[in-house]
Amino acid sequence: MEEKEIVKLTNVTKIYNQNQPLALTAIKNINLTINEGEFLAIMGESGSGKTTLLNLLSAMIPQTSGEVSLLGKKTKNMSEEDIIKFRFANVNFIFQDYNLLDNLTVYENIALLLKMNHIETKEIEKQIDGISEKLGIKELYHKYPIACSGGQQQRIAIARAIVSKVKIIVADEPTGNLDSANSKELMELFKILNQDGITIILVTHNHQIASYSSRFVFIHDGEIREEISKENKNQNVYYKEIITVSTRRGK
Amino acid sequence: MISKMKRKFNKMKYSFHIMKKLIRKNSKNYLIFLGYQTLTVAIIFLFSYLLGAKESFLNILEIYEGEIINLGVESYFNPHILVLVSLMVLVVVTLLGFYSYQFFLNEQTKLLGIFKLSGVSNNTIIIFYTLQLSLILLISIPIGVSVGYVFSGYVNDMIFQSLAIENQSIQLPLETIIHVILIMGAQATYYGMISFGFVYRYEINELSSFKAKASPNKIRIFNFESKMITIVSVVYFIGMMIALFRLDSPDYDNIMLIGMLLVIPLNRIVFNIIIPIINKWKWKLKNTNWFIALSNLVVTISKTFSLTLFICVCFICVFGINITTYEFISDEVFSKCISIATIIIFIVALVFSIPMQIRSRGNDSYQLMKLGKTRKDIKQIALIETIATIISIIFLTMFIPCLVLCKGYLAGLIRLDLIGLFLLVYAIMIIILMIVLYRTFLTFKTK
Amino acid sequence: MEFLEAHNISKIYQLDANTTIHAVKEISLKVKTGEFVCIMGPSGSGKSTLLNLLTTIDIPTIGKVCINGININVLSSDKLSTFRNQHLGFIFQNYNLMDEFTIYENLVIPLGMVGLNQRTIKNKIIDITTKLGINEILDKETHECSGGQLQRVAIARALINNPTLIVADEPTGNLDSYTTEGILSIFEQFYQEGNTIIMVSHDCFVASHASRVLYLEDGVITNEILRKNKSKEEMFDEIVEVSSMSYKKNS
């Protein structure tokens, strides 16, 4: 089966505040290809460039040098509007700070992306009910995000990302505010989505969470240092490999 | 061991140091509050001057009595009007101060929380806030008094011009100075009370968790109790409207009173009928830009509701004064003075305080772009929101005053030229507000 | 009489006419000097509320809390601030540092605003920051430091007056595993010196460093695990067991 390239980074570098005294090279010359149907976990210390890499993979920020192509199209050739439209059609985000709209109720926040896809109001209700029941946020429908706890906000952000069907889900620390039970549930949900063909790119610093992936990448100081594939390994074996690989780089 | 005096000295030293740093980093907040305070002082000075100069004016008029053809000149200084106007000025100035200081303090909530957690005593915190306030007053009072002095010169000239007699500068009466000191003292005390409340009521809970308490302006779900209150409000509103228009031989007292009474049920009508209708309606629209804009609108209305209602009440008073001045004063200039003065005060209140309330609105454009909205979409959302907000502000501030106006006109109590002037200024003010709002809504905030 | 005693405390919120929330239900517990207590539980179980009640941040609706024999709920606000300044140190997930100040200025607040001399302040700050390894960043602004460094600054601020009790609410929530280890070893050192720590965390790994773990569900303590002579790994396994038991119960 021919593997379709979803995202490809070629010799990509990202420098913040270029030409200023506080210039920071967040990403150095990275080459990374993500194929359709992969479940990729990115791990690294705080400040290693994980979030920047995620933002580059989804064209949230422009690269300083190198090529980024999404579904075969180079982002250099696309206008800002095209990139936003492309992202909207193909990628759903779970942001680290949730990015929920304060002036919309919880229900409206989840429904917004569906409404932007022109789905009927009644149809929206059906689709949302299933997911919110699973994530335990049904009682929060009429509340505003600011009145919900961190864990609840995180689950709302997850519901919003999952409920509309897209090719790629990008998640930045989606289990940060969840306890082990909810985290496990979420990862099982991701696994099911991945089996249905959705590509998932995940950033985390939890080894157990990372072990649900099919491919693991370790970042240190803006460069990819280690890369493992799960292939046919047992999850436990894969998990131990992940720990070994990341801790030997940690010191 | 450090002596108590040394401790107090050290605390003051560090309070100054912290304040200096904050002013440098948060200069915008300080400047806005300083601007408001200066304006407040100028207004107080101007009106105190008018009140204090009353005697001097009357004395001069006595000298020229024979030469002045205008009758009823004494009624320039009719006590009715002066008291009404002074009261209004006091109310407006108090509220201006109240809002701006509250806003200013709210921006310092995090520092307050850290003070409390670090175990800084409440007295020390109060001293810190008092120092800040003193600095602002120290700068605003001289500037405000100077501005007020210049303006009182203009008013002086205008009055003499209208009397067609030689311009005589009236010396600054002692009463003015006493008056200003009294009002400023009252305001300073009031600010002190607000500071106290702020420091003592603050709960550290807000610092430790992200949870916000259930807000008082929560948009409630329709239930039985709420339905009953809504029905009563609507019936009451309609009843008052009928009463207003069927008033036989009305005078300004009655009209103003009924106008005020109409304001009371407006709260329920907006929150229980209009807002739920908007919330239901926005789902029917295909364009999600409208959806987002209307959701923002609903939150904006809840946040600025009390402010717009206050302005509505003030407008009713303005029209009342207009009617009054017509009754008592035949001279153009003086009544124009009063109208313009009151109009200017409300321009300030409306144009500056509403954006201030909206400034802290949650959704910003970067967020929306991350969710898939293009710049074109964001401009459209800002446009829709601006127009919708302006419409709701016009409705909330002018609907009832217009009813009062109509009734006054039908009863032959209104002077059209003065109202025309007011409406012109209102229109200009709305346009300024529209531009300010559009720019506020279009802000791209970065974390 | 133990160091901290809570007698039958409850926290009840009245949201409106129909909704009453019992965040904490009749909890009694005793904490000895030199204990490292961790409060765990699923999100929404009342962990943060309980922490707030035990440490002067909040007042229970029913019941009382005593530290060193003093009923903290009836202290006047002046005595309360002196008490906090001398005996308590607070650490939060999001550091709660003033972004407008440098690191040094942030640390001055608990010292300068209670009237100490400049020289005393300088010595204390240099002392504590050297101990925590952050004396090099004293002149930097908060946005120039990494998450790990900022949390160390927050800990320095908490420890600067030599408190007997440290209060930590998800102190490692925003940090990666390497930095977490560093923070936890500071905590371990603190309690081995004979001081008390009460911490909230939803992370089993973090909790395994404690000497006593209280598992909270729906405002009630349902489980208690004591360290005694166990190793960290054994502690970790037991904690995971308890949390997965509650997960099975709820699904």
Quick structural summary:
Chain B is mainly alpha-helical and 447 residues long.
Tell me what the structure shows.
The complex is a heterotrimer of chains A (251), B (447) and C (251). Chain A is of the alpha/beta class. In chain A, β4 (65-70) and β5 form a beta hairpin. Chain A has helices at 50-57, 80-90, 106-116, 121-135, 150-163, 180-195, 207-210, 235-250, and strands at residues 5-16, 24-35, 39-44, 65-70, 73-74, 91-94, 168-172, 199-203, 215-220, 223-229. In chain A, 47% of the residues are buried. In chain A, α3 (106-116) packs across α4, α3 runs parallel beside α5 and α4 (121-135) crosses α5. With 447 residues, chain B is an all-alpha fold. Helices cover 80% and strands 0% of the residues of chain B. In chain B, α6 (122-163) runs antiparallel to α7, α11 (266-284) runs antiparallel to α12 and α15 runs antiparallel to α16 (416-441). The model of chain B is unreliable at 208-223 (pLDDT under 50). In chain C, 38% of the residues lie in helices and 25% in strands. Chain C is built from eight helices and ten strands. Chain C has helices at residues 47-54, 77-87, 103-112, 118-132, 147-159, 177-192, 204-207, 232-250, and strands at 4-14, 20-31, 36-40, 62-67, 70-71, 88-92, 165-169, 196-200, 212-217, 220-226. In chain C, the strands form two sheets. A six-stranded mixed β-sheet of chain C has the order 6-7-8-3-9-10, with helices on both faces. In chain C, β4 (62-67) and β5 (70-71) form a beta hairpin. In chain C, α4 (118-132) packs across α5 (147-159). Chain C is globular, with a radius of gyration of 19 Å. The model of chain C has no long low-confidence stretch (mean pLDDT 86). The A-C interface holds A 22, 44-47, 149-152, 176-182, 184-185, 205, 207, 246-247, 250-251 and C 40-44, 144, 146-148, 173-179, 202, 204, 240, 243-244, 246-247, 250-251.
